[in-house]
Amino acid sequence: MGVYFGVILVKSEAASWYRIQEMFRFEAFHMFGLIGSAVLTGMLTTWLLRRSGARSLDGQTITVAPKERGWTRYVLGGATFGVGWGLAGVCPGPVFTLLGAGVWPMLVVLGFALLGTWLYGALREHLPH
Hints:
- The chain has helices at 2-11, 17-24, 30-52, 72-88, 92-100, 106-123.
- The longest helix is centred in the first third of the chain and has 23 residues, at 30-52.
- α1 crosses α5 and α5 packs antiparallel against α6 (106-123).
- By secondary structure, it is mainly alpha-helical.
- It has one domain.
- It starts with a helix and ends in a 6-residue tail after the last helix.
- The mean pLDDT is 86.
- The chain is globular and about 45 Å long.
- The chain crosses the membrane at residues 28-49, 70-90, 102-123.
- This is Transporter.
């Protein structure tokens, strides 16, 4: 599934630094369309899971936990994610796809993504949740 997802990212140009920069400059609709279709697919899938009472392979009902109230964590998290995305020109998903395609500078992005994940784990107790 990972290889299939990687091929989709490359073929749809979702892993393209140029497409991502076009989106941030509001020069093209391409990435907004991709992201919008992903959001709609997620909304539809979540609605179907809730409505159908779907069960996992071990028989447990699949549930979707409600979001926590408040805006601080979402704004801070979104801003941090957005700054990283803007600086690197890529969100975390396509990093491995680009590495697989031979874009070796993504090793720097992967290193900092792992560092950021480690820092969050180390500082989690002191952050607003």
